[in-house]
Write a structure and sequence with these properties.
This protein is α+β, with helices and mostly antiparallel strands. Helices cover about 45% and strands about 15% of the residues. Among the domains are: about 45 residues; about 70 residues, no CATH class.
Length: about 450
């Protein structure tokens, strides 16, 4: 058949709203040629090492990963009951896998390591261990610096190659679950906050190193010894040895020097004040925290925060930083992991346990109840708008203070247009008169 012509079946399906699905993406064939040269980002190991070397990177990643790990992950059936209630799975194989991913890790360890690797490098990998076609029974979190993705012409990923102790282990795509952040320059690997904060982290490390050397050298006597006399080599070596022995090092800082033979001391080093050392460190600290989306109060910095402000920072941390990360992860797990344990399963992180979000949940509940009690919204409209819940029987009627009101007789009814009592109607009339008073109504 000439290229570009469709069969009768395809045209018929298209007429009824169905579009044909291609077996192979048109872009992957050419894209794979480019991806063959794409390797694991070179600085992946460097980013991982900053967890042990850079204090603000450690603080940010630690807070994010441990906050992430303490949120319970619940698994439901997609189809709800007739009353709109979801059925949670409590005694399924997948529950046991998440509770004890492998003999060496707990549920908390699984989510903490997954999140920490993703924050440092933009990538995190689960090795899914299963027997034959059975669902996975164990999960191992693999180091991203040891993983390389091999692309395919027919599909994006041909396999994953994990190198350890000089040996390469090849995983099929179904054996690995890849978590990654968006990257504008890579089709295979993600980009982390460490990439954008790299220069700030390096600058902070240099500042710390300089500060350590400053105090190690003595911190006070940094300059030259000058004299008008001629010093022999023997006298020079004796003076140098005596000077370093008496005044060199941190333990000998702040001693008073006694000069001899017409020597004069002339300082030449710049002070920390001249370099605005403290302000420089504050600036790099704020840049690193901003890159990770962590407010200062979350890492214990209360310089500009009072009690109320710190509570607001915690709420913003969860709403703007943590919830998007949780949603991205739960969609990845629900789409590519849970289907192995059965159809129509969905996972969701339980945010009701987060104390910082309880205030907003209570405010949302008050707004929903106020809108339904005033008759502005029906119960089903409020359920969908605020909680994304399915409708319930009788939830499409307007209520005022919890009592039903029908604006017009329903078909098949006895013709009565209102189910409110006379007292309720009087209250409604008084309210309407106050609202329209002075408007000429």
């Amino acid at each position: 058949m000439p290229e570009g012509r469709s069969t009768f079946t395809e045209r018929l399906l298209k007429r009824f709203g169905y579009t044909p699905i291609r077996d192979v993406s048109q872009t992957h064939a050419d894209l794979a040629e480019t991806l063959q040269w794409e390797q694991t980002p070179a600085k992946t190991l460097d980013y991982l090492e900053t967890y042990e070397r850079a204090i603000w990177t450690y603080a940010s990643v630690f807070r994010i990963s441990t906050a992430f790990a303490k949120v319970p992950f619940r698994i439901y059936k997609k189809r709800a009951t007739k009353k709109g209630q979801r059925i949670e799975l409590l005694d399924h194989l997948v529950n046991y896998v998440f509770e004890t991913p492998n003999p060496y890790s707990t549920r908390f360890d699984l989510w903490e390591a997954t999140t920490a690797f993703a924050e440092h490098t933009g990538n995190s990998y689960w090795e899914l261990v299963s027997e034959g076609n059975k669902p996975p029974e164990e999960i191992y979190v693999l180091r991203p610096d040891r993983m390389e993705i091999k692309p395919s012409k027919k599909k994006l990923v041909e396999n994953y190659q994990f190198e350890v102790n000089g040996r390469k282990i090849i995983f099929l795509p179904e054996d690995i679950l890849h978590f990654k952040y968006f990257s504008p320059t890579s089709d295979l690997y993600g980009t982390s906050a460490s990439a954008s904060a790299e220069k700030s982290v390096i600058l902070d490390l240099y500042a710390l190193q300089f500060n350590a050397q400053f105090f190690k050298a003595g911190a006070r006597l940094m300059g030259t010894l000058e004299t008008d006399r001629h010093l022999s080599d023997k006298a020079f070596k004796r003076l140098e040895s005596k000077w370093i022995g008496r005044y060199g090092g941190v333990a000998k800082s702040f001693k008073t020097a006694v000069l001899e033979e017409g020597l004069k001391y002339k300082p030449i080093a710049s002070s920390h004040t001249d370099m605005e050392f403290i302000e420089q460190r504050k600036m790099t600290r704020e840049e690193v925290l901003a890159a990770y989306g962590v407010p200062p109060a979350i890492v214990g910095l209360f310089e500009y925060a009072n009690y109320a402000n710190s509570l607001e920072q915690k709420r913003l941390f969860w709403q703007d930083t943590m919830i998007p990360k949780l949603k991205k992860t739960e969609e990845n797990v629900s789409s590519f992991f849970l289907p192995r344990y059965g159809t129509r399963l969905v996972g969701e992180f339980d945010l009701t346990v987060i104390q910082a979000l309880q205030e907003s949940e209570e405010a949302k509940q008050k707004i929903a109840c106020g809108l339904t009690d005033s008759g502005i919204m029906t119960r089903n409209e409020a359920r969908h708008e605020f909680y994304q819940l399915d409708p319930v029987d009788g939830g499409d009627k307007i209520t005022i203070r919890g009592k039903y009101i029908t604006l017009a007789p329903e078909e098949g009814s006895d013709g009565k247009g209102s189910e409110l009592s006379e007292a309720d109607l009087k209250d409604l009339v008084v309210t309407l008169r106050k609202r329209f008073k002075g408007r000429g109504q």
